[in-house]
Amino acid sequence: TQLLEQSPQFLSIQEGENLTVYCNSSSVFSSLQWYRQEPGEGPVLLVTVVTGGEVKKLKRLTFQFGDARKDSSLHITAAQPGDTGLYLCAGARYQLIWGAGTKLIIKP
Amino acid sequence: DADVTQTPRNRITKTGKRIMLECSQTKGHDRMYWYRQDPGLGLRLIYYSFDVKDINKGEISDGYSVSRQAQAKFSLSLESAIPNQTALYFCATSDRRTGTDGYTFGSGTRLTVV
What we know:
The structure holds two protein chains of two kinds.
Chain A: E1 5-7, E2 10-14, E3 19-24, E4 31-37, E5 44-49, E6 55-58, E7 61-65, E8 71-76, E9 85-92, E10 96-98, E11 102-107
Parallel strand pairs in A: 2-11
Antiparallel strand pairs in A: 1-3, 3-8, 4-5, 4-9, 6-7, 7-8, 9-10, 9-11
Chain B: E1 4-7, E2 10-13, E3 19-25, E4 31-38, E5 42-51, E6 54-57, E7 64-70, E8 73-78, E9 87-94, E10 104-105, E11 109-113
Parallel strand pairs in B: 2-11
Antiparallel strand pairs in B: 1-3, 3-8, 4-5, 4-9, 5-6, 7-8, 9-10, 9-11
C-alpha cells in the first residue's frame, strides 16, 4: 500500500505550458521533500516544506504544503525541456515515506 | 569527486552468485541508507544505519545484508542473487542534526541478474 500517492504518474507537455503535480496522503508528516531525478542519476533534493500552508518558490517552481500537512503540490510555470525528469515527493515521519514519482517530459 | 560514490555503476551477474555493492561518502554524515528503485514502485528501503554500530532492516531486507565498515562506508550484499533483484540500487546519506531533511544520493548501481 502506497502511503504517498503521486499524480499524475506520467505527464508529457509542450514547452511553455504550466503544470501541477500532486502528492497526497492520509498521514500527517513533519515535513515533506521534493526531489528531481534525471536518467542515470540519483534523486536531488529541490525543497523541504515544514509548516502547514507553507509555500516555497524555486525560480519557476512553486511548492505548497497542505494546511493539514498531509499533501503537497508542485507547480511549474512555463515549463522548459530542462525540467524533464522524474519528480519524487517524500514525507518525513520516523523514516522518509516515498511516492512512486511523476515522470515529466517537456517537449520543445 | 562526488559526495556519495557508488561502485560499480553497472553490473550483470548470474543467478546464485554473491555480489557486493559499495558506497562511500565524503559528507561527514552519520546516517546511511540503501534503497532499490523499480519502475512504478518508487524507492524502497532495504537497510539503514544511524551510526557504525547501528544496523536496521528496512521494508525489503530479505535476501540482502549490509556492513557498515566505517562512518563513511556502507556496503550492500546479495548473498545469492535472483532475477527479481534486478533493479537500480541507491545509497543515500543524511545528517542526524537535520533529521530526515535533505538526503544526498549516489548515482546508483544498475544491477541485472540473469
